[in-house]
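Batch manifest line 443
LIGAND: pyridoxal-5'-phosphate
JOB: complex structure
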Amino acid sequence: MAESGDVSPREAYHAVFSEMKKHHEWFADSIPLIASENIPSPAVREAILSDFGNRYAEGWPGERVYAGCTYIDRVETDCAQLARRLYKAEFADVRPISGVVANLVVYSAFTLPGDTMIAPSIPAGGHISHGKREHSGTAGLVHGLNVEFYPFDAERMNIDVDKTKKKVQERAEAGKAPTMAMFGGSLFLFPHPLRELADFLKGYGMHINYDAAHVAGLIAGGAFQDPLREGADTMTMSTHKTLFGPQGGLVLGGAPHEESIKKATFPGMTSSHHIHHMAAKAVAFAEALEFGESYAQQVLDNARTLAESLSDMGFRVLGENGGFTRSHQVAVDVLKYSDGGRVEADLEKANIIVNRQLIPGDIKAGRNYFHPGGIRLGVSEVTRLGMKKDQMRQIAEMIKRVVIDGRDPAGIRAATRQLRQDYQKVRYCFDAELGAYEYVKLR
Ligand SMILES: *Cc1c(COP(=O)(O)O)cnc(C)c1O
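JOB STATUS: finished
ARTIFACT:
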């Protein structure tokens, strides 16, 4: 595209739409395997287009700062009720506009700057919103938390329970016990040992938050751990990863935490809470209540099949002794062929969209985020499109041709397009007339 200074405003205006249309066409032909993404239903997209997106509704339903909220209040009341039902929670705040904001709500409600939080490190699956100040992580940089990492067992790809206990005990003896424990992560193959650690951590007075950003749709479908039953005080999430809603956030917790969470969300962390996205969350929660179980089960089957196929073809798939995965994700060490950055770029040329991934051992070996040792694959979106185990085997074969056989990626594109032909609608939703990636023109 030309520099915007060289073109007329009208040309620049049209260019925006033409690029977006090309994006839609590209994704309709591709294999989307980004584990943090999903495809929402046409109903979710309709809610996002509504006039709710042009309004303010600061405060709580019935206690707003502006007039004009009659219908917004009804939808938001329903939305919170659907969220509570979906996650069997006493309290839900549906206003946080993203997963990071949901985490900030919990940091603000339950810790003070200078407190310590224990969380997974990034190569061990943690998210940058749990991170240290020196890495520009949200917890450290924005809320001033000190962050300690859980000891991690790279063989089992999980938090090491015994070493964690030892570490917490030592810190407590030095008068530096953490006040918050964060579970959940972004590279997340197996349920975290929350049940095993909750009583121990609470013995030190810690608040336990579970960040379900990645696995919210699996928890909703009863196919992963159930954090609020296993000892988490609060649960934060994004609403658009395995849960197939609009981009947004959600905080859940017990009734005793209600007031602190409400105040931290507004006025603490939000002014506008993106009300069109709130309505779209309500739609997605209803869809998850109806279709969540069969969707989540298929996601697990697909991930397991993709992992096993890749392993059979010679890839080093992480988490082998645990059966590779019990989530929507598959993590592959690609150092034998090149590195995660190069593999990501090659696969993109084949219209297979994945992301490079820091894996355990990378930092010690001096590898960085641009050229890490792994790639991460997620099957939520292809599952939403109706793909099953057979298609997972075909996808594994295409990845092998590019990465192991070194075939020209562009030559694989015809095969990816062919595979996508029968999978152009969203499943697991009430209404799906519109194509999954159909571009909607309103002008
Ligand atoms: C994606 C992610 C987030 C951030 O969510 P956004 O909605 O992108 O702000 C937070 N925590 C974890 C574990 C994540 O994977």
